[in-house]
Amino acid sequence: MPGEASCYSWDDRRQLTIRVAAVFHGHEGPWLVLGYRAGWRAVEVLEPRSVFEMSCVVRAPLSTPFTCAADGIQVAAGCTLGKLNIKLEPVRSPEEIEYVFTCRGRTLHLKLKPWVWSRIKEISSESGLTEASRWCMRQELHTMFEELLEP
Ligand SMILES: [Zn+2]
């Protein structure tokens, strides 16, 4: 429960790396990386004090690889299925993908820019998944996501 001494603080949680995310997920892929980086950004911006404070809605087409992002978010942001502070909300098209984080009354929308998923598709088919995920690691976050913080 929030505030209990046995809860992990963010200092502990933040030690989970993208490598850990790949082990948890089972493979390294661009969508895992996108989710991981978005989750990390949400922690930076919203500064949750425990793993219970933040929640996430993953708005994505309900199919892989798009849903792979949810595993990256779980590892980076500590919003997990078991704690019921992450949920998937289906959208029709990859152009509608966004990750919405809420913490202490503030909401951060990270909306994937439409060109990103088509670029990922291109790189994946030309050079493979690993190259596509490395590409996602190299991009500046603001080139891939539109960021909106409310209030
Ligand atoms: Zn995957």
Overall description:
By secondary structure, the chain is an alpha+beta fold. It has a single domain (10-150), classed as 60s Ribosomal Protein L30, Chain: A (2-Layer Sandwich), CATH 3.30.1330.130. It is 44% helix and 21% strand. It has 7 helices and 5 strands, in the order H-H-H-E-H-E-E-E-H-H-H-E. The protein has helices at 10-13, 18-25, 30-46, 69-77, 114-127, 129-138, 141-144; strands spanning 54-60, 86-90, 98-103, 106-112, 145-150. Strands 2-1-3-4-5 form a 5-stranded mixed sheet. The radius of gyration is 15 Å and the shape is globular. Zinc ion binds at residues 25, 27, 29, 31-32, 64-65, 68.
Adjacency order of strands in the biggest sheet: 2-1-3-4-5
Under CATH, the topology can be stated as: 60s Ribosomal Protein L30, Chain: A
User: Structural class, please?
Assistant: alpha+beta
Using the 3D structure, state the CATH architecture: 2-Layer Sandwich
Mean pLDDT: 92
What is the distance, rounded to the nearest whole angstrom, between the alpha carbons of the first and last residues? 26 Å
Got a strand count?
Answer: 5
